Amino acid sequence: MIPEANVNLANGQIGGSISTNDNLTGYVLTGAGTGILGLLAPIKVISVDDAKAQGVTAEAEPEAYRFVTEFYSIPGTLNAPVWIMLVGAAVSLVDVCNINNENGIKKLINAAQGTIRVLGVARTPAVGYVPTVSKFLDSDVALAVPVAKTFATAMFENHTPLRILIAARVNDVTSVTIDTPKTMTANNVGLVIGGTANDGITSMGLVLGKVASTAPHVCIGKVKDGDLPISSYFIGGLPILQDTDNPQAAWYKQIDQLVDAGFITVKTYPNGSAGFYFSNDPMCVAESDDYANLATGRVIDKASIIAYKVYCNEINDDVDLDDNNNIEPVVLKALEGVTVAALNLNMSASMSGDPVVYVDENQQITATSKFKTKLRIRRKGYLKVIDVELGFYNPNLN
According to the lineage, what is the superkingdom (predicted)? Predict the structure, then answer.
């Protein structure tokens, strides 16, 4: 025997990464469906050229083509996959979001096997269409919010969390009857308003491109990430900036009111940062809600997937009990440790510190075999309003 010392590498001791598909997006929108790409035919594309090869061209499907071009214009979307499905112009937003409609958004979600995390939905009705109620937005938009909420809630309960963004199509830009998203109760649904062209089409590609290129905790309106690659933006056919060469031309002056109401749209910061930026990432719920923003919702969705996969591994496992039939403290500590480790390994950048796990040490599982724990994520904070007090320095006062 030759005397020697050996060091062997042990693998699988710290847990592997968990796939959560944070950046996978999808879009269901109105199309013609008369070319290579038919209606109700889900496809996944990874570039503009790929989309064109599958039938999404400027000639055959101009709205879908604009979506992919704007999506892939966002830095960081190179080769990012996005799912697309076309529906007919007669299909309402309410119908397409209905959880019982097999030919609605459910069809695209199923095609992607529940991996889409943020889904855009839009409708461009046929010429001559008249909403049931005449107001600022097409009445179909607000009616679709609770329907989309039901769909997204069911997805979360099925451990495939989803956020839905609805294109808020403007019906009458002169109407003062405006829906207010922040007074609704759907924290998993958002309304996107406005577009880069004067045609009433919502620029959902810019929004989903931002989602596809950023971590869950990053607000799509983060100024440090740079301005949007656009030169104009319209609300209901009116530009949001005044034409300095033609000051008398009509322009939309209420953009800040839309931002305050809770719409996802764009704005500028005059004399600050040049260009257009997303104003914020609000959802259709009160600002006091824990998930009032897309970013916080995406973070909790990621955490839910990780927690579910961790505890799935513990199902039907046998655990040691103490003399009082409670789970042994060492077992509880081990469960706490594996949860914290998995979250830190997979999403530390999206938290402000270690997650907190609460476990009741007096759980008797002999009768129910049910184990309960509470998991709390330390969320990020966001500098949404910055107040600066400016004055001259006085050594006798400061």
Answer: Bacteria
